[in-house]
Amino acid sequence: MSTKRKKLAVIGGGAAGFFTAINAAQKNPHLDIYLFEATRRPLSKVKISGGGRCNVTHKLFDPLKLSSHYPRGQRELISVFKRFSPKDTISWFNQRGVSLKVEA
């Protein structure tokens, strides 16, 4: 008896889409993952962010202070930033051999 493999469709080939697909693949190795992007160049906005230097995160580590910079979602983002903070982002990249540069 064969079991059907589960599938995940990730809509959007930007930073969040790739991040989601990578993490889903690592946590669920038997999952078929499909990444859909409408443009011809996935991750193109990542390449040009930060004046072509690809901004990743910042050093504001306090969830309350960080969420205060998002006035339309401040309250909702506090718990999100507590679960996955800029420190976690830095660690995620470091674990994959990508060192990040901190600038003022």
Q: N-to-C terminal Cα separation, in Å?
A: 59 Å
What is the H/E order? EHEHHHH
Low-confidence stretches: none
How many distinct beta strands?
2
Side-by-side strand order of the widest sheet: 1-2
Please, what is the average pLDDT?
89
Description:
- It is a single chain.
- With 104 residues, the chain is mainly alpha-helical.
- Helices cover 41% and strands 10% of the residues.
- It contains five helices and two strands.
- The chain has helices at residues 15-27, 44-48, 63-67, 74-83, 86-95; strands at 7-11, 32-36.
- A two-stranded parallel sheet has the order 1-2.
- The relative contact order is 0.11.
Question: What labels describe this entry?
Answer:
104 residues, mainly alpha, 41% helix, single chain, 2 strands, two-stranded parallel ribbon
How would you briefly describe this protein structure?
The protein is mainly α and 104 residues long.
